[in-house]
Amino acid sequence: MFWTVVKRAALLGALLALPLTARAEPVTYAGKLGNIDIVVEFTGDPATAGAALAGRYFYRSKGVDIPLQAKSNKGTAFQLAEEEACDAKKCGDGQAPPIAAVWRLSSSDKGKTLEGTWTAKKALPLKLTRIASRAQTETPATTPRDLYDFTDMTFSGDDAPITMAASPYDYLRLDFAPKADAKAGWPDAAYDYVTDPRTKFARPRIVDLAGGAPIEAANALLQSRHWHDSLSALSCAALRYAGFHEGPPIEGMDDGSLGGYEDSHSEVTSLTPKLMSWRESGSLFCGGAHPDNYSDAYVMDVRRGALLGLQDMFSDTVDGKPGPSLLAFVKEKRNKPSEQTEIESEAECGTDDLINDYLAASLKRDGDKQMLVFGLQGLPNVIQACGDDLLEMPASEAQALFKPEFAKLLEP
Protein backbone atom coordinates (compact mmCIF):
# COMPACT_ATOMS: atom_id res chain seq x y z
CA MET A 1 0.00 0.00 0.00
CA PHE A 2 2.71 2.45 1.02
CA TRP A 3 4.77 2.36 -2.13
CA THR A 4 1.62 2.54 -4.25
CA VAL A 5 0.82 5.77 -2.41
CA VAL A 6 4.38 6.99 -2.95
CA LYS A 7 4.23 6.36 -6.69
CA ARG A 8 0.84 8.01 -6.98
CA ALA A 9 1.88 10.91 -4.80
CA ALA A 10 4.96 11.49 -6.89
CA LEU A 11 2.66 12.04 -9.84
CA LEU A 12 -0.13 13.95 -8.11
CA GLY A 13 -0.65 17.05 -10.16
CA ALA A 14 -2.60 18.69 -7.38
CA LEU A 15 0.45 18.57 -5.14
CA LEU A 16 3.40 18.76 -7.47
CA ALA A 17 2.19 20.84 -10.38
CA LEU A 18 1.64 23.94 -8.30
CA PRO A 19 3.52 27.07 -9.38
CA LEU A 20 6.72 27.62 -7.42
CA THR A 21 5.39 30.68 -5.63
CA ALA A 22 2.48 28.62 -4.24
CA ARG A 23 4.52 25.54 -3.41
CA ALA A 24 4.49 25.05 0.34
CA GLU A 25 7.30 23.95 2.57
CA PRO A 26 8.53 21.81 4.33
CA VAL A 27 9.03 19.05 1.77
CA THR A 28 8.71 15.28 2.16
CA TYR A 29 10.85 12.73 0.28
CA ALA A 30 10.78 8.93 0.32
CA GLY A 31 13.34 6.41 -0.82
CA LYS A 32 16.20 4.22 0.33
CA LEU A 33 19.05 4.38 2.82
CA GLY A 34 21.09 1.47 1.53
CA ASN A 35 18.30 -1.04 0.96
CA ILE A 36 16.07 0.23 3.80
CA ASP A 37 12.86 2.18 3.16
CA ILE A 38 12.84 5.65 4.72
CA VAL A 39 10.77 8.85 4.65
CA VAL A 40 12.40 12.28 5.17
CA GLU A 41 11.00 15.76 5.82
CA PHE A 42 13.19 18.82 5.24
CA THR A 43 12.60 22.28 6.67
CA GLY A 44 12.79 23.77 3.18
CA ASP A 45 12.90 22.91 -0.49
CA PRO A 46 16.28 21.42 -1.51
CA ALA A 47 15.79 22.85 -4.99
CA THR A 48 15.50 26.47 -3.84
CA ALA A 49 16.77 26.66 -0.26
CA GLY A 50 19.13 29.53 0.38
CA ALA A 51 20.19 28.35 3.82
CA ALA A 52 21.30 25.05 5.29
CA LEU A 53 18.43 22.60 5.68
CA ALA A 54 17.49 20.60 8.76
CA GLY A 55 15.12 17.66 8.83
CA ARG A 56 13.84 14.48 10.38
CA TYR A 57 13.35 10.98 9.05
CA PHE A 58 12.07 7.55 10.01
CA TYR A 59 12.66 4.00 8.96
CA ARG A 60 9.40 2.60 7.60
CA SER A 61 9.80 -0.50 9.75
CA LYS A 62 10.08 1.63 12.91
CA GLY A 63 8.15 4.89 12.37
CA VAL A 64 10.14 6.85 14.99
CA ASP A 65 11.51 10.31 14.13
CA ILE A 66 15.30 10.83 14.07
CA PRO A 67 16.64 14.42 13.98
CA LEU A 68 18.77 15.71 11.10
CA GLN A 69 20.59 18.87 12.16
CA ALA A 70 21.61 21.46 9.56
CA LYS A 71 25.31 21.23 8.70
CA SER A 72 26.16 23.02 5.44
CA ASN A 73 24.96 23.72 1.92
CA LYS A 74 26.62 24.79 -1.30
CA GLY A 75 24.54 25.18 -4.42
CA THR A 76 22.60 21.98 -5.01
CA ALA A 77 24.68 20.02 -2.46
CA PHE A 78 24.06 20.02 1.27
CA GLN A 79 24.94 18.09 4.42
CA LEU A 80 23.09 17.15 7.59
CA ALA A 81 24.18 15.61 10.89
CA GLU A 82 22.05 12.70 12.13
CA GLU A 83 21.73 12.65 15.91
CA GLU A 84 22.34 9.61 18.06
CA ALA A 85 19.80 8.76 20.76
CA CYS A 86 20.82 10.56 23.92
CA ASP A 87 20.56 9.22 27.47
CA ALA A 88 21.69 10.82 30.74
CA LYS A 89 25.22 9.45 30.36
CA LYS A 90 25.71 11.12 26.97
CA CYS A 91 23.74 14.33 27.43
CA GLY A 92 23.10 14.68 31.15
CA ASP A 93 25.45 17.63 31.68
CA GLY A 94 24.13 19.74 28.83
CA GLN A 95 26.63 18.50 26.26
CA ALA A 96 25.59 18.37 22.62
CA PRO A 97 24.11 15.05 21.49
CA PRO A 98 26.52 12.73 19.69
CA ILE A 99 26.40 12.44 15.91
CA ALA A 100 25.46 9.04 14.54
CA ALA A 101 26.03 9.75 10.83
CA VAL A 102 26.56 12.48 8.25
CA TRP A 103 24.25 12.85 5.26
CA ARG A 104 25.66 14.25 2.00
CA LEU A 105 23.06 14.94 -0.65
CA SER A 106 22.83 16.60 -4.03
CA SER A 107 19.63 17.79 -5.69
CA SER A 108 18.86 17.09 -9.33
CA ASP A 109 15.96 17.43 -11.76
CA LYS A 110 14.72 20.61 -10.03
CA GLY A 111 14.64 18.90 -6.65
CA LYS A 112 12.64 15.85 -7.73
CA THR A 113 15.55 13.58 -6.82
CA LEU A 114 18.17 13.65 -4.08
CA GLU A 115 21.18 11.35 -4.12
CA GLY A 116 24.21 10.98 -1.91
CA THR A 117 25.69 9.02 0.97
CA TRP A 118 25.00 8.23 4.61
CA THR A 119 28.32 7.91 6.40
CA ALA A 120 28.87 6.40 9.85
CA LYS A 121 31.21 3.48 10.50
CA LYS A 122 30.44 2.57 6.91
CA ALA A 123 28.98 4.45 3.96
CA LEU A 124 25.61 3.63 2.42
CA PRO A 125 23.93 5.17 -0.62
CA LEU A 126 20.97 7.51 -0.24
CA LYS A 127 18.38 7.96 -2.97
CA LEU A 128 15.22 9.98 -2.36
CA THR A 129 12.26 11.03 -4.51
CA ARG A 130 10.19 14.11 -3.82
CA ILE A 131 6.65 13.26 -2.70
CA ALA A 132 4.92 16.51 -1.69
CA SER A 133 5.13 19.63 0.40
CA ARG A 134 2.79 20.91 3.09
CA ALA A 135 1.64 24.32 4.23
CA GLN A 136 4.21 26.26 6.18
CA THR A 137 3.48 27.12 9.79
CA GLU A 138 3.14 30.72 10.95
CA THR A 139 6.73 30.58 12.20
CA PRO A 140 8.80 28.87 9.49
CA ALA A 141 10.41 25.60 10.54
CA THR A 142 14.21 25.78 10.81
CA THR A 143 15.07 22.88 13.15
CA PRO A 144 14.12 19.22 13.64
CA ARG A 145 12.24 20.25 16.76
CA ASP A 146 10.08 22.66 14.75
CA LEU A 147 9.07 19.74 12.52
CA TYR A 148 8.40 17.50 15.53
CA ASP A 149 6.35 20.22 17.22
CA PHE A 150 4.25 20.66 14.08
CA THR A 151 3.16 17.02 14.29
CA ASP A 152 2.63 17.19 18.03
CA MET A 153 0.53 20.35 17.95
CA THR A 154 -1.41 19.59 14.76
CA PHE A 155 -2.48 16.04 15.57
CA SER A 156 -2.47 15.95 19.38
CA GLY A 157 -6.27 15.50 19.47
CA ASP A 158 -8.52 13.06 17.64
CA ASP A 159 -10.20 15.54 15.31
CA ALA A 160 -7.52 16.80 12.89
CA PRO A 161 -7.46 14.44 9.88
CA ILE A 162 -4.04 13.01 9.03
CA THR A 163 -3.98 13.40 5.25
CA MET A 164 -1.42 13.80 2.46
CA ALA A 165 -2.41 17.45 2.15
CA ALA A 166 -2.10 18.18 5.89
CA SER A 167 1.20 16.32 6.38
CA PRO A 168 2.58 13.96 3.74
CA TYR A 169 5.33 12.90 6.15
CA ASP A 170 2.91 11.80 8.88
CA TYR A 171 0.45 10.25 6.44
CA LEU A 172 3.16 8.05 4.94
CA ARG A 173 4.35 7.17 8.45
CA LEU A 174 0.90 5.79 9.37
CA ASP A 175 -0.04 4.23 6.02
CA PHE A 176 1.30 0.89 7.19
CA ALA A 177 -0.41 -2.47 6.67
CA PRO A 178 -1.83 -3.62 10.04
CA LYS A 179 -2.14 -7.19 11.21
CA ALA A 180 -5.68 -8.45 11.89
CA ASP A 181 -6.81 -10.88 14.58
CA ALA A 182 -9.56 -13.47 14.15
CA LYS A 183 -13.07 -12.23 13.41
CA ALA A 184 -15.43 -12.03 16.40
CA GLY A 185 -18.88 -10.67 17.21
CA TRP A 186 -22.47 -11.73 16.62
CA PRO A 187 -24.34 -13.35 13.69
CA ASP A 188 -25.44 -9.96 12.36
CA ALA A 189 -22.30 -7.95 13.20
CA ALA A 190 -18.64 -8.97 13.04
CA TYR A 191 -15.46 -7.13 13.95
CA ASP A 192 -11.77 -7.81 14.44
CA TYR A 193 -8.83 -6.09 16.08
CA VAL A 194 -5.94 -4.74 14.01
CA THR A 195 -2.43 -3.91 15.19
CA ASP A 196 0.32 -1.77 13.73
CA PRO A 197 3.29 -4.04 14.61
CA ARG A 198 5.43 -0.96 15.29
CA THR A 199 3.17 0.38 18.07
CA LYS A 200 1.87 -3.02 19.22
CA PHE A 201 -1.60 -2.10 20.52
CA ALA A 202 -4.84 -3.35 18.95
CA ARG A 203 -7.86 -1.30 17.91
CA PRO A 204 -11.17 -2.55 16.43
CA ARG A 205 -12.47 -2.49 12.87
CA ILE A 206 -15.87 -3.61 11.61
CA VAL A 207 -15.66 -6.59 9.23
CA ASP A 208 -19.26 -6.99 8.05
CA LEU A 209 -22.83 -6.22 9.06
CA ALA A 210 -26.14 -7.90 8.24
CA GLY A 211 -28.16 -6.52 5.35
CA GLY A 212 -25.10 -4.98 3.74
CA ALA A 213 -25.16 -2.05 6.16
CA PRO A 214 -22.35 0.35 5.23
CA ILE A 215 -19.17 0.20 7.34
CA GLU A 216 -16.92 2.69 5.53
CA ALA A 217 -17.68 5.77 7.64
CA ALA A 218 -17.39 3.84 10.90
CA ASN A 219 -14.09 2.24 9.93
CA ALA A 220 -12.75 5.61 8.80
CA LEU A 221 -13.39 6.99 12.29
CA LEU A 222 -11.88 3.90 13.95
CA GLN A 223 -8.80 4.13 11.73
CA SER A 224 -8.41 7.85 12.42
CA ARG A 225 -8.48 7.26 16.18
CA HIS A 226 -6.00 4.39 15.82
CA TRP A 227 -3.69 6.55 13.69
CA HIS A 228 -3.75 9.40 16.21
CA ASP A 229 -2.85 7.04 19.04
CA SER A 230 -0.08 5.44 16.95
CA LEU A 231 1.32 8.87 16.13
CA SER A 232 1.32 9.81 19.83
CA ALA A 233 3.13 6.57 20.68
CA LEU A 234 5.78 7.13 18.01
CA SER A 235 6.21 10.75 19.12
CA CYS A 236 6.86 9.53 22.67
CA ALA A 237 9.54 7.15 21.42
CA ALA A 238 11.25 10.02 19.55
CA LEU A 239 11.88 11.90 22.81
CA ARG A 240 15.02 9.82 23.31
CA TYR A 241 16.58 12.28 20.83
CA ALA A 242 17.69 15.60 22.33
CA GLY A 243 16.84 17.47 19.14
CA PHE A 244 13.12 17.07 19.80
CA HIS A 245 12.92 18.73 23.23
CA GLU A 246 14.59 21.27 25.51
CA GLY A 247 16.77 20.48 28.49
CA PRO A 248 18.32 17.19 29.61
CA PRO A 249 16.99 13.75 28.63
CA ILE A 250 13.44 13.21 29.86
CA GLU A 251 13.45 10.73 32.72
CA GLY A 252 11.73 7.53 31.68
CA MET A 253 11.76 8.49 27.98
CA ASP A 254 15.41 7.87 27.08
CA ASP A 255 14.87 4.19 26.24
CA GLY A 256 12.58 4.63 23.24
CA SER A 257 9.43 3.92 25.28
CA LEU A 258 6.10 4.11 23.45
CA GLY A 259 4.63 5.94 26.42
CA GLY A 260 2.51 3.00 27.59
CA TYR A 261 0.44 2.87 24.40
CA GLU A 262 1.87 -0.57 23.71
CA ASP A 263 0.07 -1.84 26.82
CA SER A 264 -3.22 -0.02 26.24
CA HIS A 265 -6.36 -2.09 25.69
CA SER A 266 -9.50 -1.84 23.58
CA GLU A 267 -12.63 -3.97 23.92
CA VAL A 268 -15.76 -3.97 21.76
CA THR A 269 -18.76 -4.29 24.08
CA SER A 270 -21.55 -4.02 21.51
CA LEU A 271 -21.99 -4.00 17.74
CA THR A 272 -25.14 -4.02 15.61
CA PRO A 273 -25.74 -2.81 12.04
CA LYS A 274 -26.65 0.57 13.59
CA LEU A 275 -24.57 1.09 16.74
CA MET A 276 -21.12 0.24 18.08
CA SER A 277 -19.77 0.63 21.60
CA TRP A 278 -16.28 -0.04 22.89
CA ARG A 279 -13.95 0.80 25.76
CA GLU A 280 -10.32 1.98 25.68
CA SER A 281 -8.13 1.88 28.78
CA GLY A 282 -4.49 2.27 29.74
CA SER A 283 -1.85 4.24 31.60
CA LEU A 284 0.18 6.65 29.47
CA PHE A 285 3.35 8.56 30.30
CA CYS A 286 5.23 10.75 27.85
CA GLY A 287 7.01 13.00 30.34
CA GLY A 288 5.33 15.14 32.96
CA ALA A 289 4.32 14.88 36.59
CA HIS A 290 2.35 11.63 36.48
CA PRO A 291 0.90 8.99 34.14
CA ASP A 292 -2.44 9.57 32.43
CA ASN A 293 -4.65 6.72 33.65
CA TYR A 294 -7.91 6.30 31.73
CA SER A 295 -10.78 3.97 30.97
CA ASP A 296 -13.19 5.53 28.48
CA ALA A 297 -16.26 4.11 26.75
CA TYR A 298 -17.59 5.23 23.37
CA VAL A 299 -20.81 4.89 21.39
CA MET A 300 -20.89 5.37 17.61
CA ASP A 301 -23.62 5.74 15.02
CA VAL A 302 -22.26 3.19 12.55
CA ARG A 303 -23.87 4.52 9.38
CA ARG A 304 -22.62 8.07 9.95
CA GLY A 305 -19.33 7.14 11.59
CA ALA A 306 -20.09 9.67 14.35
CA LEU A 307 -19.47 9.42 18.09
CA LEU A 308 -22.52 9.96 20.29
CA GLY A 309 -22.39 11.82 23.59
CA LEU A 310 -25.01 12.12 26.31
CA GLN A 311 -26.63 14.99 24.40
CA ASP A 312 -27.12 12.72 21.37
CA MET A 313 -28.58 9.85 23.38
CA PHE A 314 -30.77 11.41 26.09
CA SER A 315 -33.51 14.03 25.97
CA ASP A 316 -32.62 15.69 29.28
CA THR A 317 -29.13 17.14 28.93
CA VAL A 318 -27.74 20.64 29.43
CA ASP A 319 -24.54 21.64 27.61
CA GLY A 320 -23.58 17.99 27.19
CA LYS A 321 -24.13 17.14 30.86
CA PRO A 322 -27.06 15.27 32.44
CA GLY A 323 -30.16 17.29 33.22
CA PRO A 324 -32.26 16.99 36.41
CA SER A 325 -34.42 14.03 35.39
CA LEU A 326 -31.50 12.00 34.02
CA LEU A 327 -29.47 12.71 37.16
CA ALA A 328 -32.36 11.67 39.38
CA PHE A 329 -32.86 8.46 37.42
CA VAL A 330 -29.21 7.40 37.65
CA LYS A 331 -28.76 8.37 41.29
CA GLU A 332 -31.92 6.54 42.32
CA LYS A 333 -31.23 3.32 40.44
CA ARG A 334 -27.43 3.11 40.58
CA ASN A 335 -25.49 0.47 42.46
CA LYS A 336 -24.93 1.61 46.04
CA PRO A 337 -22.31 0.10 48.35
CA SER A 338 -23.33 -2.08 51.26
CA GLU A 339 -20.00 -2.76 52.98
CA GLN A 340 -18.68 -0.09 55.35
CA THR A 341 -15.31 0.33 53.61
CA GLU A 342 -17.06 0.87 50.28
CA ILE A 343 -19.50 3.31 51.85
CA GLU A 344 -16.60 5.33 53.28
CA SER A 345 -14.73 5.22 49.97
CA GLU A 346 -17.76 6.50 48.08
CA ALA A 347 -18.28 9.28 50.61
CA GLU A 348 -14.66 10.33 50.19
CA CYS A 349 -15.08 10.38 46.41
CA GLY A 350 -18.36 12.29 46.57
CA THR A 351 -19.86 10.03 43.93
CA ASP A 352 -23.22 11.81 43.62
CA ASP A 353 -21.42 15.10 42.98
CA LEU A 354 -19.15 13.45 40.39
CA ILE A 355 -22.18 12.12 38.52
CA ASN A 356 -23.26 15.72 37.88
CA ASP A 357 -20.12 16.47 35.86
CA TYR A 358 -18.66 13.14 34.69
CA LEU A 359 -21.59 10.88 33.81
CA ALA A 360 -21.13 8.83 30.63
CA ALA A 361 -23.17 6.10 28.97
CA SER A 362 -22.28 3.15 26.76
CA LEU A 363 -23.74 -0.13 25.53
CA LYS A 364 -23.07 -3.77 26.23
CA ARG A 365 -24.55 -6.45 24.02
CA ASP A 366 -25.75 -9.69 25.63
CA GLY A 367 -26.95 -11.93 22.80
CA ASP A 368 -29.76 -9.98 21.15
CA LYS A 369 -30.27 -7.76 24.19
CA GLN A 370 -28.73 -4.30 24.49
CA MET A 371 -27.67 -3.29 27.99
CA LEU A 372 -27.27 0.39 28.89
CA VAL A 373 -24.25 1.10 31.09
CA PHE A 374 -23.80 4.33 33.07
CA GLY A 375 -20.41 5.19 34.53
CA LEU A 376 -18.02 8.00 35.40
CA GLN A 377 -15.58 9.11 32.72
CA GLY A 378 -12.96 11.84 32.25
CA LEU A 379 -12.17 12.19 35.95
CA PRO A 380 -9.10 14.24 36.97
CA ASN A 381 -6.05 12.07 37.48
CA VAL A 382 -6.04 12.49 41.28
CA ILE A 383 -9.49 10.86 41.57
CA GLN A 384 -9.27 8.25 38.80
CA ALA A 385 -9.79 5.57 41.46
CA CYS A 386 -13.32 6.93 41.95
CA GLY A 387 -14.30 5.99 38.41
CA ASP A 388 -16.49 2.90 38.04
CA ASP A 389 -19.66 1.63 36.42
CA LEU A 390 -22.70 2.92 38.30
CA LEU A 391 -25.62 1.15 36.67
CA GLU A 392 -26.22 -1.57 34.10
CA MET A 393 -29.75 -2.22 32.87
CA PRO A 394 -31.65 -3.37 29.75
CA ALA A 395 -31.85 -0.47 27.33
CA SER A 396 -35.51 -1.31 26.80
CA GLU A 397 -36.20 -0.20 30.38
CA ALA A 398 -34.85 3.28 29.74
CA GLN A 399 -36.87 4.12 26.62
CA ALA A 400 -38.44 7.17 28.24
CA LEU A 401 -34.98 8.74 28.65
CA PHE A 402 -33.87 8.48 25.03
CA LYS A 403 -34.02 10.95 22.20
CA PRO A 404 -36.24 9.54 19.41
CA GLU A 405 -33.28 9.35 17.01
CA PHE A 406 -31.23 7.26 19.45
CA ALA A 407 -34.19 5.04 20.33
CA LYS A 408 -34.54 4.29 16.62
CA LEU A 409 -30.91 3.23 16.41
CA LEU A 410 -31.51 0.80 19.27
CA GLU A 411 -34.33 -0.93 17.40
CA PRO A 412 -33.47 -4.39 15.98
Automatic annotation (TrEMBL):
Alphabetically sorted, this entry's keywords are: Signal
What domain of life does the UniProt record list for this protein's source? Bacteria
Could you say which residues form the signal peptide?
1-24
The protein's name: Uncharacterized protein
Native organism:
Mesorhizobium loti R88b
